[in-house]
Amino acid sequence: GAVVSQHPSRVICKSGTSVKIECRSLDFQATTMFWYRQFPKQSLMLMATSNEGSKATYEQGVEKDKFLINHASLTLSTLTVTSAHPEDSSFYICSGSGGVETQYFGPGTRLLVL
Amino acid sequence: GQQVMQIPQYQHVQEGEDFTTYCNSSTTLSNIQWYKQRPGGHPVFLIQLVKSGEVKKQKRLTFQFGEAKKNSSLHITATQTTDVGTYFCAGPRQAGTALIFGKGTTLSVSS
Known about the structure:
Chain A is mostly beta strands. Chain A is built from no helices and 11 strands.
């Protein structure tokens, strides 16, 4: 299957700082990338959908000014958590889709905000 | 709104026993996908079912898609400790191209 990488895999930061997470599709062009958040023992919740070269579409309740998404190329999307707070601590997972409906997930980034 | 429900939420079995998780959608789906997430890991794609009544097998795993394309099941025969994890079903959202996930069934296996 297609490979998606995420960096960093784990990050600890102080409250109020910003954290950038990169999501790369390594062997396919991801026309669409999705960002999910997963709290412990819960399911994946879609945060936003990003299409290359256009603005991301955010789910209801997700602050677009807090979670900045950039999808500058067909292989890279970034999520920046601005002014992170402890309640933003979570497992952030991206996935890429090359046009068919199957999504390929990155390994996820565990964010801990102190 | 559109919902995908899974039962049971948790299941514990003895190694060698069978296991089944059920997925029900509030809407008709064009396809249904199954993912497995190991503890501490990320979801890994297992399979996609597209046709009404479709049945697919992967070794000890059997996947079914209901005739009405609103429900699905995953059955594992003779579970092994390597089957431990959370199994999610997911279907296309009515709007856009994202997936909507069920809450998952977490399987634990004791030897």
